[in-house]
């Protein structure tokens, strides 16, 4: 089980993360697809190769191929959108009259239930720190019927996955430095 391998590899200083990754993936108000899509999209957003590899292996056991691809699509498109819309927002309306002219068809046709894709986009936006995208995706999922608790669970998953990825990368960097 890849999740257990990842948990077992976390250093002692990341004990809280070890416990949290277990709890957020075992008890949730999210459907299985929503949960594991959030895990996968969040792992991709962290840019940690090991975290993504381990959690992708686990996510494959819970997601259809379409959902797996859509979660990675959410991470990818938000990688672009979070940079663009965060910058546009930080420039306080100076460019609001201009069209983005960026291709984003996956948002309209993600290959899964749109609310799930939007939830994954919200989780990625929280990791990437784009308040404009975070607000936009939160509004869409709430209007589609997701509860505050479901949104909160997705944010908790994103936060824990980001923390796990950080601990994994710290450990890898320090381990590589001690070998040099």
TrEMBL record:
From what superkingdom does this record's organism come? Answer: Bacteria
Q: Which GO terms describe its molecular function?
A: disulfide oxidoreductase activity; hydroperoxide reductase activity; peroxiredoxin activity
Disulfides per UniProt? 130-133
Keyword Oxidoreductase recorded: yes
Q: Which residues form the active site?
A: 130, 133
Q: Report the EC code(s) recorded for this entry.
A: 1.11.1.28
* Pfam families reported for this sequence: CMD (PF02627)
Instruction: Please indicate if the UniProt record lists 4Fe-4S as a keyword.
Output: no
Signal peptide (from-to): none
Tell me the keywords, alphabetical order: Antioxidant, Disulfide bond, Oxidoreductase, Peroxidase, Redox-active center
Which reaction(s) does its UniProt entry say it catalyses?
N(6)-[(R)-dihydrolipoyl]-L-lysyl-[lipoyl-carrier protein] + a hydroperoxide = N(6)-[(R)-lipoyl]-L-lysyl-[lipoyl-carrier protein] + an alcohol + H2O
User: Which top-level enzyme class is recorded in the Swiss-Prot or TrEMBL entry?
Assistant: oxidoreductase
Biological processes per GO annotation: cell redox homeostasis; response to oxidative stress
InterPro entries the record matches: AhpD, AhpD-like, AhpD_core, CMD-like
The protein's role, per its UniProt record: Antioxidant protein with alkyl hydroperoxidase activity. Required for the reduction of the AhpC active site cysteine residues and for the regeneration of the AhpC enzyme activity.
What HAMAP family does the database record attribute to this sequence? AhpD
Q: Which family does it belong to?
A: Belongs to the AhpD family.
Q: How does it assemble?
A: Homotrimer.
Question: Can you name this protein?
Answer: Alkyl hydroperoxide reductase AhpD
Origin species, per record, is Conexibacter arvalis
Gene expressing this chain: ahpD
